[in-house]
Amino acid sequence: MSDGDGEATTAVLQSFLSSLSDLPAAGDETESIDRIAVLEAIKAGCAAAQAVETMRLEELRREAESAAGVPVARQGRGLAAEVALARKASGSAGGRYLGLARALMREMPHTRAALAAGALTEWRATILVRETAHLTPRDRGEIDRRLCADVSVFEGVGDRALDAEVKRLAYELDPQAVVDRHAQAAKDRRVSTRPAPDGMVRLSALLPLVSGISVYASLKKHADATVGADDRTHAQVMADALVERVTGAATVDALPVAVSVVMSDEVLLGSNGAAAHVTGYGPIPADTARDMVATSLDADAATTLRRLYKAPSSGALVAMDSTARLFPTGLKLFLDLRDESCRIPYCDAPIAEYDHADPHSRGGDTSAANGGGMCLAHNRAKQNPGWQMTTADHTDTTRHTSTVTTPTGHSHLSRAPAPPGHHDQPVSLIEQQLRALLDAA
C-alpha cells in the first residue's frame, strides 16, 4: 500500500468516526437496542483491527531497526509505551495490548476471527489470552479451536464462567504447566492501594490461596464473635480488625499516620472551601483536610507545615520550603507535589523515579523545569532511540508542561495539575498577544 492509500484509509476511518455522532435518533426501543448491539460488535471489530495494526507496527519497527543494525534483543523496545499513548492508556495497559495482539495474530486465529465478527468482546478475548499464556503454542491453539471455532459457544456465558472453562481446559491439556504457574504466581504477592469514592481507600492484597483464605477466615471469625458488642456492622468489625492487626494499634483511632496534605492558606484558615489534595490519593473536601490537621495538632503529633509557592495567574508551583540538607531530596519532594503521578500523558501510575527531560549526559540540568516524576515503565521506554522529551516552565502564563515525542513523530502533551484551590483565569486574545510580544522582546 502506498503512502497515499494509507492516508486515504485513515481519512475514511476518521470520517466513519464522525458519522457515528451524526446518527439520526432511533425510531423506537427495539431499534435502539439493535443499535447498541451493533455498536458493541463494531467496538469488537475495531479491537481486532487494532491488533492487526499493532503487529504491523511491530513488523515495520523491527525491519527499520534491523536495517539500522540494532541487535535483535533490543529491537522493539518502547513499543508498548507507544501503543499505550496512541490508545490513550497507561504504560501497563500498553503492554497488555501488545501481548494481546501478538497472541491473536500468531497463535489464536479463531479468537481473532470471533473478535473481528463481534461475537467476542475485547475483554473476553483478553481472558482467553491471559489464561492460556502459560501453555505451549500447540495447547493454546487447541483451546482456541475448542472455544472459538464455533461462536455459539459464547451465547449466555458470563465472564467468570468463561474464565473457569479456559482454566479447566488448560489443566486438562497440561496439568504441570498450571502447577508451575501457580508456584510462580506466589512470587507476585503484593499489597496495593487505590483511591475510592467519598474519602475512602481500597486496600488490596494479592496472596497465595491458603494465605488469602486464612486471613479472611480469621477476620470473619473475629467479627462473628464481636458483632453486637457495639453499633458496628459485621463488615465494619472486619475492616477495623484488619487495621488494628496490621498496624499494631489498639484501635483504628490511635494510628501513627504520615500523610501529605496540600492546601492553600485560605483553605487552612477556613476562608476558602476549595478542595485540598492528599498525595497518593487525590482531592478531599476542605473540611476534611482541616479536620486532619486539627486532629494531628490536638494529638500532639509530629506535624510539619511546609510552604509551597505558586505563580498567581497560572497556579504553577515554583518553589518550596525545604528542610532537607541535600538538594536532590528536596527536589524529589517538590516533583512529587507538583506532578502527583507519572508525567507521561494518560499514565496515572505512582511516581517511582525522577529523571531529566533533556538528559544529563547531554548537558541537561538537574532542576524542577527539566525534571519530572515518572513510573518505571515509561522512564525505561523514553531511553530508547527515537524518543524525545521537552519541557516548558512558563510559570506566569501556564503550568509546567511536558511533551513526549515517539519514534513515529507523534507528540503528546501533559501539563502539571493545578494545585488545590486554584482555578485558571480566562485570558483574553489581546492579553495573549501582549504576552507573546513581551516574551519575544
Structure description:
This protein is mainly alpha-helical and 441 residues long. The chain contains 16 helices and twelve strands. The strands form five sheets. The protein has a three-stranded antiparallel β-sheet with strand order 3-4-5. Strands 10-11-12 form a three-stranded antiparallel β-sheet, with no helix packed on it. Strands 1-2 form a two-stranded antiparallel sheet. Helix 4 crosses helix 6 and helix 10 packs across helix 11. The radius of gyration is 27 Å and the shape is globular. The chain starts with a helix and ends with a helix. About 1% of the residues have low confidence.
Q: Quick summary of this structure?
A:
Helix content is 49%, strand content 12%. By secondary structure, it is mainly α.
Strand order of the largest sheet: 3-4-5
Distance between the termini: 49 Å
Helix content: 40-55%
| Count of distinct strands | 12
Rg, Cα atoms, Å: 27 Å
Average predicted confidence as pLDDT = 82
Q: What is this structure's SSE topology?
A:
Layout: H1 3-20, H2 29-67, H3 79-86, H4 91-106, H5 109-116, H6 122-130, H7 137-148, H8 159-173, H9 175-185, E1 190-196, E2 200-206, H10 209-226, H11 234-247, E3 261-262, H12 265-269, E4 276-278, E5 282-284, H13 286-298, E6 308-310, E7 317-320, H14 327-339, E8 353-356, E9 371-374, H15 376-381, E10 388-392, E11 401-405, E12 411-415, H16 429-440
